[in-house]
Amino acid sequence: MDFSFRYSEEELMDDPQIPIDVLRATYLDINRANHYLGGDNCILKSVMLLVEENPKKKYSLIDIGCGDGAMLRKIADNFRNRNIEIELLGVDINEKAILLAQESSSKYPEISFKRMDVFKANKLKSDIVIATLTMHHIAEKDISNFLHSLKNISQTGIVINDLHRSRMAYYLFKFFSVIFIKTKIAKNDGLVSIRSGFTKREFENYSRLFPKSQHAINWKWAYRLNWIIRFND
Questions:
Q1: At CA 102, angle to CA 86 and CA 128, rounded to 5?
Q2: Which of 28, 135, 157, 131 is nearest to 72 (CA)?
Q3: CA distance linking residue 132 with residue 61, whole number of Å
Q4: Tell me: the pLDDT tens digits for 129-157?
């Protein structure tokens, strides 16, 4: 198995015909993996870093590829605990994902959701934009347009958190999924996602698209790449 290049197979959960109950169970597995493998904490710490660097009374944040909205609910809880006001928007192209997100977020008036293609989201504006486990869904030929779309939305900074493509990550997830992942779709798509992920050097190459911005690209456990883009232009 060759990990020297990005894999291009579509994930099963991207099928628009997938039953909503199956999709719900798949997101539960994904959310469990994000919790135990550290993805959630990476995003929360990165968002709070941007907030601390840019103090104001109220913030806005958009989650691109929000899925069932789990990350937005964690961010909302974090801001509530700190008594900081924030307006949150989740964007996803999958209509069923948006329905699940709305269903699970009824107690969060600060969160709203919108079905939208990120490539057509240039009219949106927000202080902070996050994309967690979203960019590996984007074909290599579209990465530049994707990143420019995020930049057009964000006024302060972007946080991108995605999978480090490596053989070790692949087999670690195989072991993890035996114990913690219940659905066949999540087991399959987790492996496809890792092969569709990135290397740190690839992130560094993408960062050259924005030479006037500040970039912090770091490897995080478990096999995550975390990229914070701060805008000076």
A1: 30
A2: 131
A3: 13
A4: 999 999 999 999 999 999 999 999 999 99
Residue 225 Ramachandran class (φ > 0 left, ψ -120 to 50 alpha, else beta): beta
186's CB contacts (< 8 A; 6+ apart) are 13, 26, 29, 30, 33, 177
Side chain identity at residue 142, one-letter code: D
Residues of the chain with pLDDT under 50: none
Both structure tokens of 155: 């006024």
Measure the CA–CA gap between 132 and 34, rounded to whole angstroms: 10
The H or E element spanning position 130 is strand 126-132
Domain layout of the chain by residue ranges: 12-230
In sequence order, what are the residues at sequence separation of 6 or more whose Cβ sits closer than 8 angstroms to the Cβ of residue 158? 128, 129, 130, 131, 150, 151, 227, 228, 229
- Assign residue 116 a region: left if phi > 0, alpha if psi is -120 to 50, beta otherwise? beta
For domain 12-230, the CATH superfamily is Vaccinia Virus protein VP39 (3.40.50.150)
- Measured distance CA(227)–CA(162) in Å, rounded: 9
In the predicted model, what is the mean pLDDT of the chain?
A: 97
